[in-house]
Amino acid sequence: MDDERELLVVDPTPGAHPAGAAPEIFVDAVRRILDEIGEDPDREGLRGTPDRVHRMYVELTRGYAIDPDRLINSAVFDVGYNEMVVVRGIEFYSLCEHHLLPFFGTANIGYLPRTRVLGLSKIPRVVEMFARRLQVQERMTTQIAEFLLDRLDPLGVGVVVEAQHLCLAMRGVQKHGATMVTSSVLGTFRSSRQTRDEFMAHLDRDLRR
Ligand SMILES: [Zn+2]
C-alpha cells in the first residue's frame, strides 16, 4: 500500500510544491502572520514553525499532484458483475478553502457497473485525491461522483459525504460535533428511485449511529 502511494504522486512542477526547505517568501509570510496576531516569530517555540507549516501544507494538498490516470488505469477491470458496489465509511481529511481549517469525516460511495469495476483499494485513493487540496464539501462530493462516472462509465454513481468542519466547531457558530451531509447522485442513481433507495439502504446502517 505504501509502495503504491509513492508511485501515484508524480513529481510536482518545480516550485509548485518543493519538498525541501520552505521558500523564503513562504517563511516571510508565516512570520508576518505570527507578528500580526501579536506573537514573536523569533521566540524558541515558533522559530521552526514556518518550515513546519510549509511541510504540512505540502502534505495536506498533495492531491493536486496525484495523476488520476496512474491512479485508475492499472485497477480498472472488466468483470461480469453488474450489481451495485458500495464502499462505506472511507475516512478523509480535507481543508476548507474559506478558512484553511480542516474538515473531516467519511465518504460513502456506490456505483452500478456497466462492465467496468475499480479495484477496491483504489476507491479511498480517489477520495484522497480530491480531499487533499483546498475544498468545499459540496464540490468534493460532486468531483468524486463525476470522476467515477467519467472513468468507469457505470450506469450510475452515488456519493454521500458526512463531515465535521472545524471552522464551524471552533468558532462556536454551531453546536460542537454538528456534521454536514452532502450527496451527489448521477445516472440511474438519480433517475431511478429504486436504485437510489437501494444505495441509501446500504448507507443507513452507518449514517444513523
Ligand atoms: Zn471554513
CATH topology of the largest domain: GTP Cyclohydrolase I, domain 2
CATH architecture term of the largest domain: 2-Layer Sandwich
Q: Give me the strand/helix succession.
A: HHHHHEEEEHEHEHEHH
Count of runs of 4 or more consecutive helical residues: 10
Question: Structural class given helices, strands, pairing?
Answer: alpha+beta
Spatially, the strands of the biggest sheet line up as 5-2-3-6-7
Shape: elongated
Low-confidence stretches: 1-18
Distance between the termini: 30 Å
Gyration radius, in Å:
20 Å
Bound molecules: zinc ion
How would you characterize this protein structure?
The protein is α+β, with helices and mostly antiparallel strands and 209 residues long. The chain has 2 domains: 2-64, GTP cyclohydrolase I, N-terminal domain (GTP Cyclohydrolase I, Chain A, domain 1, Orthogonal Bundle), CATH 1.10.286; 70-207, 2-Layer Sandwich (GTP Cyclohydrolase I, domain 2). It has 10 helices and 7 strands. The strands form 2 sheets. A 5-stranded mixed sheet has the order 5-2-3-6-7, with helices on both faces. Helix 6 (122-131) crosses helix 7 (137-152). Zinc ion (ZN) is lined by residues 96, 98-99, 101, 165, 167. The site of zinc ion (ZN) has 6 residues, from loops.
